[in-house]
Design brief:
By secondary structure, this protein is an alpha/beta fold. The protein folds into two domains: about 180 residues, UDP-n-acetylglucosamine1-carboxyvinyl-transferase, Chain, CATH 3.65.10.10; about 210 residues, Enolpyruvate transferase domain (UDP-n-acetylglucosamine1-carboxyvinyl-transferase, Chain, Alpha-beta prism). Helices cover about 30% and strands about 25% of the residues. The protein has 13 helices and 24 strands. A four-stranded mixed beta sheet has the order 22-23-1-24, with helices on one face. Strand 20 and strand 21 form a beta hairpin. The longest helix has 13 residues. The relative contact order is 0.15. The C terminus is likely disordered. Bound molecules: uridine-diphosphate-N-acetylglucosamine (UD1). The site of uridine-diphosphate-N-acetylglucosamine (UD1) has 23 residues, from helix 1, helix 5 and helix 6.
Length: about 400
């Protein structure tokens, strides 16, 4: 079985370039379903989740050609409106095809994603939104069956902001009859980017990036070209890698526009962050200040950075409280960090992290994508050797990890 072996205690120094955003590439690739013809997406990262969505799109009849990070998609020959269990179970974001399939075929059959390590993660809000747009929805034998001759614009209120839910409904509403208004919509940059891509395809979407998105339905979309933005979670993870090792790292292709909460929290933790022209320099002197963090929907601190931040403050001088408000079970990494000497207890939805002078290398197990990243970060800072098993979680979202076979 593959594992990652890290000899810790080395200050990271050098330059790194941020890849295209996974969570932006997924919906943008899916949006090619909405227009008949050939589209191109640039700067697509080479990750397993991206491979999974391409396999699903191919299954639906899209012809795909890869040239490095450029993905050419031809949707002239769609042949299926079904997303099978085998493809949806490996990646929840596969459910994003639901809206577009409904638009193109008037019906869709998509497997329910099921639970995952970090929480129940239902798709009730995706289904509610489609129903509000006039779709008949039925859930049977683990599949969602959706049908609508013609979707009709509606006002849709999300009980809680959902990223892929907002994206799904936005894609379903682009060709609906009349106006749709999504309230309490997710404001994440990936939602904004999808709206930009859809507008390039001829959609009429306004307000993405705020909690109210207005979509005026158009007759049809045409294929277009789009470049994926840099990945904010990868950027934040490299910043912590520099910070936790007391290193000096220059980051290229840094997404300056949407990193405020991460940059501010890292500064509070004593990491030095400086813009140098188009680049970002991150340095640290080995002292980490205790810092409280609460995860929230954007522009709040991202839940996808919570585990990595916990590794950082595990060696802080003092106690930090990390509150997780987005997912109910996102502390799977805590027991692994404890194996490395971290002093962390969980109280409800908060982790109380009492800083220790140093972490010690240990054998640990990756539990989900971001938790895996947190263990790599802890391993980089720890004294001695850390061995991380179950690293397939990391392949879902990290492209540049070099591994050895055990
Ligand atoms: C997306 C991201 C993921 C990130 C998460 C939160 C992608 C591909 N993935 O996931 O990396 O961690 O946003 O920023 O973009 N919820 C419901 N009902 C629904 C949908 C969601 O109750 O129908 C709840 C979820 O259980 C969760 C909260 O809403 O508590 C936010 O989840 P959501 O924004 O939907 O996460 P994803 O879009 O799945």
């Amino acid at each position: 079985m593959d594992k990652i072996v890290i000899e810790g205690g080395i200050k990271l120094k050098g330059e790194v370039e941020i890849s295209g955003s996974k969570n932006s590439a997924l919906p943008v690739l899916v949006s090619s379903l909405l227009a008949d013809g050939k589209s191109v997406v640039h700067n697509v990262p080479g990750l397993r989740d991206i491979k999974t969505i391409k396999t699903l799109l191919k299954h639906l009849g899209i012809r795909i050609e890869d040239k490095g990070g450029d993905v050419y998609l031809d949707s002239s020959h769609l042949e299926s409106f079904e997303a099978p269990y085998e493809l949806v179970k490996t990646m929840r974001a596969s459910v994003l095809v639901l809206g577009p399939l409904l638009v193109r075929f008037g019906r869709a059959k998509v497997s329910l994603p099921g639970g995952c390590a970090i929480g129940a993660r239902p798709i009730n809000l995706h289904l509610m939104g489609l129903e509000m747009l006039g779709a008949d929805i039925c859930v049977d034998h683990g599949y969602v069956f959706a049908e609508a001759k013609k979707l009709k614009g509606a006002r849709i209120y999300f009980d809680t902001p959902t990223v892929t839910g907002t994206e799904n409904i936005m894609m379903a509403a682009v060709c609906a009859e009349g106006r749709s208004v999504l309230e309490n919509a997710a404001c994440e940059p990936e939602v904004v980017e999808l709206s930009v891509a859809l507008n390039r395809m001829g959609a009429n979407i306004n307000g993405a990036g705020t909690d109210t998105i207005t979509i005026d339905g158009v007759k049809e979309l045409h294929p277009a070209e789009h470049t994926i933005i840099p990945d904010r979670i990868e950027a934040g993870t490299y910043m912590i890698a520099a910070g936790i090792t007391g290193g000096d790292v220059l980051i290229k292709n840094f997404p300056f526009n949407y990193m405020d909460s991460i940059v501010m929290k890292l500064k509070e933790a004593g990491i030095f962050i400086k813009r140098e022209g188009g680049l970002l320099r991150v340095t640290a002197n080995g002292n980490v200040a205790h810092t409280n963090v609460k995860t929230l929907p954007y522009p709040g601190f991202p839940t996808d950075m919570q585990a990595q931040f916990m590794s950082l403050v595990s060696i802080a001088g003092g106690t930090s409280v990390i509150a997780e408000t987005v997912f109910e079970n996102r502390f799977m990494h805590v027991s692994e960090l404890r194996r490395m000497g971290a002093d962390i207890s969980i109280e409800g939805h908060s982790a109380i992290v009492r800083g220790v002078p140093f972490l010690s290398g240990a054998q640990v197990m990756a539990t989900d994508l971001r938790a895996s990243a947190s263990l790599v970060l802890a391993g980089l800072a720890a004294k001695g050797i850390t061995e991380i098993s179950r690293v397939y979680h990391l392949d879902r979202g990290c492209a540049k990890v070099k591994r050895i076979k055990a």
